[in-house]
Amino acid sequence: MDFSSFITSLATSFMIFVILMILFAWLSTKPGNAVVYYPNRIVKGMDPWEGGRSKTRNPFAWIREAMSSSEEDIIAMSGVDSAVFFVFLSTVFGIFVLSGVVLLPLLLPLAMSEHDAGILDSTGKNAFRDLDKLSMAHINERSARLWAFLASCYWVSFVSYFLLWRAYQHVSNLRAAALKSPEVKPEQFAILVRDIPSSSEGYSRNEQVDTYFKSMYPETYYKSMVVTDNKEVNKIYEELVACKKKVRRAEIIYSDSKKGPNPQGVKPTHRLGFLGLLGKKVDTIDYCNERIRELTPKLEAAQKETLREKQLASALVFFNDRTTASAAGQCVHAQMVDTWTVMNAPESRQLLWTNLSKTYYAREIRQYVVYFIVFLTICFYMIPIGLVSALTTLANLEKLAPFLKPVVERAAIKTVLEAYLPQIALIVFLALLPKFLLFLSKAEGIPSESHAVRAASGKYFYFSVLNVFIGVTIGGTLFDSLKEIQKNPNSLVQKLASSLPGNATFFLTFVALKFFVGYGLELSRIVPLIIFHLKRKYLCKTEGDVKEAWLPGELGYATKVPTDLLIFTIVICYSVIAPLIIPFGAIYFGLGWLVFRNQMLKVYVPKYESYGKMWPHMHVRILGALILFQITMVGYFTIKKFYYSALIIPLPILSFLFAFVCRKKFYPFFHTTAIEVASHDLKETPNMDLIYKSFIPWSLNPDKLDDERLGDGPSYDLRPALDAYAQTQDV
Amino acid sequence: MDFSSFITSLATSFMIFVILMILFAWLSTKPGNAVVYYPNRIVKGMDPWEGGRSKTRNPFAWIREAMSSSEEDIIAMSGVDSAVFFVFLSTVFGIFVLSGVVLLPLLLPLAMSEHDAGILDSTGKNAFRDLDKLSMAHINERSARLWAFLASCYWVSFVSYFLLWRAYQHVSNLRAAALKSPEVKPEQFAILVRDIPSSSEGYSRNEQVDTYFKSMYPETYYKSMVVTDNKEVNKIYEELVACKKKVRRAEIIYSDSKKGPNPQGVKPTHRLGFLGLLGKKVDTIDYCNERIRELTPKLEAAQKETLREKQLASALVFFNDRTTASAAGQCVHAQMVDTWTVMNAPESRQLLWTNLSKTYYAREIRQYVVYFIVFLTICFYMIPIGLVSALTTLANLEKLAPFLKPVVERAAIKTVLEAYLPQIALIVFLALLPKFLLFLSKAEGIPSESHAVRAASGKYFYFSVLNVFIGVTIGGTLFDSLKEIQKNPNSLVQKLASSLPGNATFFLTFVALKFFVGYGLELSRIVPLIIFHLKRKYLCKTEGDVKEAWLPGELGYATKVPTDLLIFTIVICYSVIAPLIIPFGAIYFGLGWLVFRNQMLKVYVPKYESYGKMWPHMHVRILGALILFQITMVGYFTIKKFYYSALIIPLPILSFLFAFVCRKKFYPFFHTTAIEVASHDLKETPNMDLIYKSFIPWSLNPDKLDDERLGDGPSYDLRPALDAYAQTQDV
Predict the structure, then answer these.
(1) Which residues of B fall below an 8 Å CB-CB distance to A?
(2) Inter-CA distances, A147 with A153, A255, A493, A640, B127, Å
(3) Number of separate helices (H) and strands (E) present in chain A
(4) Nearest residue of B to residue A168 by CA position?
(5) ipTM of the complex
């Protein structure tokens, strides 16, 4: 890529960004869009335009608001997890700014002023043009200028260690502050017990758990809740809720129709068969009311039966003191350690109920099976895509779906389809991959949603780095490279190092595109805006429907974090080879900080709180990227035939040491709750009954079967809506 | 080795064994030897000849007694650790008996009846003679008879899994029973806290620890004992004790001398200089009494100063409830996990006080440094021995130690010395090795004696297996082999497999020698008997001296366990290749069980109790030996060009799985005390003051500075004597 096309690409991206910004400034002031641009505020019961809205409002006011918001504001609006995400963004931003301040003025002049290396390209011309002259590739072999590049590696590494250390300490303090807060948090009073052995004495599970824990914690034990097999009761419950929603919606349609030309109105009807398309036609209101009458006693019977007969081998155990609960969640309780395994309970809203009763060895085996599947997916993902493309040639498509024939036969469409079918398969695969990885992570038997998201995020990160970064750099898929590496295990580093400089401009453009277009779309929320308005116009009937249409959910760490980590990996690996990439990395994370500050304060509604457990996960991967950078540099210095390239070898060793110390010093507190933190005083004596009830699943709670669940009326109470959402996701 | 020389060697060993047995039967009935043959009973205040002693006593009565003793007897006399050692012996015995019952009648006829393989040795004769015909080496390549050998591998493996599983369960129950006993055990009420951060608020360490734990355990916290730097106070204390002993001894000598020709007696004197050989001559009684008068106030002052000024960053923390103590020893207490690290306290008598205050990172670094030194020792131990031999040639010896010249110059001695100097260096090295490894293990910063012994035992095992077994088999030291293996990593298994059959007879004789001569010496206690009688005659003056002369101490697991494990490794590796070794292995462990049953009941006085923590250590190494066997067999079947040799590959994988499951199921309870075990009721309310005092080191306890420590009078109270012993070892 030469200089002019690079500038063109940059300018185009920037133009798109500017347009989206203008759109955002214009759209976000419209009152009808408030639920799209300020849902988090609305959910929290606040005024969307807190800062004051007027026609003359400064379109850049959001920047001022984002800049002036403090960490406490973020924690109040969006929780500790969001605050930790900003620590991540600002740490990485800091690494790039501090690196750039030294590396740009030092390395760029050195590279530019080097006498031509005299390397010719295939056309016989000098291989270096414009941008390439600014990179380390332009330095001659064995040049003394390489010392500056070597020193730069050290600078980048030490800046990273310093900032990561401070960040880990800061996050640890954030977590501690949240956990020692005097507010009563139900999950701090509970532990999750799994692998309860089958009782020989004819006890019920409940009695067994009570006896067991009461003998150990006679004074602080409160009660236990045995996990049950809720499949059947959930089914009835879901149907009941669906019926209630249908009645409500049908009543509104009916009363609306009375206002029309027919004053008696038209009673809405629907069909009972497949997807409401086939089968008998019935009057919706009558039919559903009838079903509700049938289902209500059935649900009660099923609830009772489930509680009595379908107890599984795991339970939530409650203590009336959070110090004891925290200690109990960390201790070995049973002599045989594969029974009565304990852990601190996650929040009730993020419990994955169906995973709770999986036994110890089932979890272990599932984990290894999932790792193996992920390994296959990462290495050989091109194979299924290839197969799909082969199967879905146009000829096959016509055979399988004859009704598509008239469309497909048109010449223009045919050409496009023929050219793009494999690409479409790839795009579909990449779009579905995060969901697939989340599904796999849940299949491991992980008990909480946030943990599953972390596991999925880790898997996605490995996929991105191995296939996008290393794949693009080396060329071809990882599978091809693997075959070569098998022959000579050391060749990967060599090959990676030698291919890096050639791809610098590509990744430069890649990063710029990511932030201009990505952040533009993120901030302006064009897609959710259109979807919301379409839904409201054509689908939503009740207030609940409308709320469901705009409720934005959470940020989606499972894809956001690995994407950001991929950008970090790319920029850090190029930081010394092509220092020009550093400002782009800095802008990516700086602008990201600003945009997401706005989004977190005003848009996203987090589904759960893990108190910063994401940080160790990010920390390790940042360090992994740093080590990849250091090893690549060892390879690249060797290619440059620099005699002192061995001097970089201490760097990866230092990184491992740093990781080891951080793991030992900080990590265990993220795995569990330290006693010194849990033993802080509470504001009030906890109401144990409320705490207990907050863990009862919706489908088993007779009290909760009211209208609250249906989102009726302008109630902005967060918990029920989120719980309902989480519940449907989990079952 | 041919058949006749094998028989000769066996017969000789057996003769020695018979002679030693007769000696034992004769000597053990003499009353003067009771303290040598029954010290454990005497220490426990029991009658040495409980079963009744008479001139007509059956010389095999000890066998009956050993056979009829139950596990409870062993635990009562010698503790859980000894019982666990017998579980180890009987498990391994069981593995060999069950293997032998199937393998001997199956494989020996198959091997013997095979047509000659027609392999010729270097002299052109048939390479197979007598014993060799009974081994797998005699089976032709690709023979169908190899199927039986393959099946045998599976049989041996499954027998091992089955017995190991039962043994682990049994040991776990033994441990649980001991830990849940209603007796008050001081160490169950204490935790060891290390890495206490330096306090900023001008608190003393004591106040700091008290404040910290009181806030977390307001009701169950009792008191803390901050570890102090006792170097100086120990020095004064040791001198004071030595002076007291000297006075006592001198008084006896003085009063004895009055009975002699001179009725006024001779006052004993000694010199003050180097080793009592040089310097001023003084009257011992007067001088020592003077020193005692000087030292007593000095000790008191030093004690006060130590307690006030020399507090270190670790402490013992006491709770008045063992459930809380057990839980507190397992939990993460601090937000920064490299501070306030906790563990369940070991017994006071096995605390390594100087290690307690080592900081977290110091411990980690020391550990890796020690591992590295051990690695060097194992691989390159021939180098220092070679150097020593080279330096200590006779010529050098004469130069360095001229006074030896007249001795060395004699022809006979000269020849012997010249021939054996390198061997002597090797023997000295091997004799010192266990002590060196124990020293290294203590240098790791391990807080308890039993843990250090386990660590040393592990290191010694690796040394034995790598150098004795693999070294002898392959020939030459490990270092030579390493050079070859570096060239082709797969060659080790091949080489080991091909060299095994040739050494079968050597190891057969080795095992037989070990049990006949080893157990004969062990049971007859000839060496301790002679040393005791010599000491009593020439050195011992006071009762305390006599007791010190016979007090046998403990078995010495640090060398006994790795030696037994080495024998197990050898026998299991040969079990299928040369099944004739199995009966020898069975006799080794069966006879060992019998002999040590006697020794444990009557002789050895254990220094400490770790409640079976040695078992996981032995279990893992037994499994390691099994995996070595399985991998060797893979190699050997390949050499035999057996097409189905791949069928053994599942075996090592199975072993790893088995190890994994055992680790998950059983191990954590051996690492710590499960709450369900600790929460059992106690017989009485614990006397916390006594518990606290039992942890005060001798040199710091003003109450304990009485005559008890000097072993005066026929007091068989175990604890003080042992404590004193442990104390001098640790400091």
Answers:
(1) 172-173, 176, 212, 215-216, 323, 326-328, 330-338, 340, 360-361, 364, 661, 664-669, 671-677, 679
(2) 10, 81, 21, 12, 66
(3) 33, 6
(4) B336
(5) 0.81
Question: CB–CB of A139/A114 below 8 Å?
Answer: yes
Q: Give CA–CA dist B396/B401, Å, rounded.
A: 8
Task: Kindly list the residues from chain A whose CB atom is less than 8 angstroms away from the CB atom of residue B677.
Answer: 335
d(CA B677, CA B662): 19
- Which of A215, A330, A333, A653 to substitute to test the interface with B, most B CBs within 10 Å? A333
The Cα–Cα gap between A721 and A716 comes to 9
Q: Do B336 and A668 touch (CB under 8 A)?
A: no
pLDDT of residue B467: 79
Angle CA B591–B594–B596, to nearest 5: 105
What's the count of helices (H) and strands (E) in chain B, helices before strands? Answer: 33, 6
> Helix B449-463 vs helix B360-380: angle between axes, to the nearest 10 degrees?
30
Q: Give me the residue spans of the domains in chain B.
A: 3-183+489-678, 364-444
Of B330, B338, B679, the CB nearest to A330: B330
The answer to whether residues B171 and B668 touch, using CB atoms and an 8 Å cutoff, is no
A529-559 pLDDT, tens digit each: 888 888 888 877 777 778 877 888 788 888 8
What distances in angstroms separate CA A522 from CA A352, A514, A529, A576, one per listed residue? 29, 11, 11, 31
- Give the pLDDT confidence of B685-702 residue by residue, as tens digits: 888 888 888 888 888 876
Answer yes or no: pTM beyond 0.80. Answer: yes
Q: Which of A707-716, B16-25, B226-235, B429-438 has the lowest mean pLDDT?
A: A707-716
The tally of CA atoms less than 13 A away on the side-chain side of residue B455 is 22
By Cβ distance, the residue of B333, B667, B676 closest to A674 is: B333
Q: What is the pLDDT of residues A43-69, one digit of tens each?
A: 887 777 665 554 456 767 788 888 888
CA distances from B209 to A646, B48, B224, B342 (A): 48, 48, 7, 12
The HSE-up count of residue B308 (CA atoms within 13 Å, CB side) is 6
The mean per-residue pLDDT over the stretch A274-291 comes to 78
Q: Which residues of A touch B666 (CB under 8 A)?
A: 336-337
